[in-house]
From TrEMBL:
Pfam family, any one: Peripla_BP_4
Name used for this protein in its record: Sugar ABC transporter substrate-binding protein
Family: Belongs to the bacterial solute-binding protein 2 family.
Matches recorded under SUPFAM superfamilies: Periplasmic binding protein-like I (SSF53822)
Species of provenance: Corynebacterium bovis
Length: 308
């Protein structure tokens, strides 16, 4: 059996190394030939999906950060009789294009939980750093962060009553999120942009990255700006885990990328082997969970081995 995995991962992004590692381990177990390719540009990623169809693969696992651009190529694959599953990005659209399953986290929910975590940590103004402008998953994270922080701050201001009044109370209490766009493929530029923003706005008390490399870069940016802002992030890698242990990063929202890659390939193998479906057509959640100083030791070894 031959499976193509097509992601929007950028070169050098260690998050996608974890996804690929999970896919490779599942392929090895299942005796599957895995063909991995990626491109952060949506038209190019769509072309990679079409290339996989033209090469007559048996299954495709694909991310859809921009469904309108990539979805039609996915639909053509399904129409050609190829079983397709989604992972990581595109949870709200995968059924529209005929995918049989999805493995990942609901980004808006993950963002809201992170926002509530910020509120519990006393944040008043957070900077949400988007490194891929136009990526719907990243926009959803920041939107959820904004909702969660405002609601959580409102509940704190009203003594934990919650409800609709709590959300408006959060706004009055100063629970706000500002979005900053950067080019995630140029970490030097990311550092200078974040540093300039922190130097200009001393009211920012938290910086939230959406990937580990950006969060790690934000650590240096805050230091060089003379800012006391704390750093949190979505997604992890081995270096990020070490930064949490050290205290440079406070916590991370983990969506378990290794598991996403593993489950996507394994689901395609099961579908071919005996017609099994994983999740019954509904998404299988791999996150979110929090990694912080209290929990980091439980995943540290796995992170070093590229398994988390």
């Amino acid at each position: 059996m031959t499976v193509a995995m097509v992601s929007h991962g950028a070169p050098g992004d260690t998050f996608w190394d974890l996804v690929r590692k999970g896919a490779e381990d599942a392929a090895r177990k299942d005796n599957v030939e895995l063909r991995y390719s990626s491109d952060p540009q949506a038209p190019n990623q769509a072309n990679l999906v079409q290339n996989a169809v033209d090469s007559r693969v048996d299954g495709i696992a694909v991310t859809m950060p921009t469904p309108d651009a990539i979805g039609p190529a996915v639909q053509r694959a399904v129409d050609a009789g190829v079983t397709v599953v989604g992972l990581n990005a595109g949870m709200d659209q995968y059924r529209r294009y005929g995918m049989s399953g999805f493995f990942g986290q609901e980004e808006g929910v993950a963002g809201e939980q992170a926002g509530r975590r910020l509120a519990a940590d006393g944040a008043t103004k957070a900077l949400c750093v988007i490194q891929e402008q136009g990526n719907s998953s990243q926009e959803a994270r920041c939107a959820g962060l904004r909702t969660g922080l405002a609601a959580g701050a409102g509940e704190r201001a009203t003594g934990g009553n919650g409800g609709g009044g709590g959300a408006s109370g959060g706004t009055r209490a100063g629970g706000t999120v500002e979005t900053l766009y950067v080019n995630g493929q140029d970490l030097t530029a990311v550092q200078s942009t974040v540093q300039a923003k922190l130097a200009q706005d001393r009211g920012i008390d938290w910086v939230v990255g959406l990937v580990a490399p950006v969060a790690l870069t934000a650590v240096s940016a805050a230091r060089d700006a003379g800012s006391s802002a704390k750093i949190a992030t979505f997604d992890t890698n081995a270096e990020l885990v070490a930064a949490i242990r050290k205290g440079d990063v406070q916590w991370a929202v983990d969506q378990q990328p290794y598991l996403q890659g593993y489950l996507a390939v394994d689901a395609l193998w099961l579908a071919r082997r005996n017609g099994s479906t994983v999740g019954g057509g509904r998404p299988v959640y791999t996150g979110p969970s929090f990694v912080d100083a209290d929990t980091v030791d439980t995943i540290a070894d796995a992170a070093k081995e590229g398994l988390r």
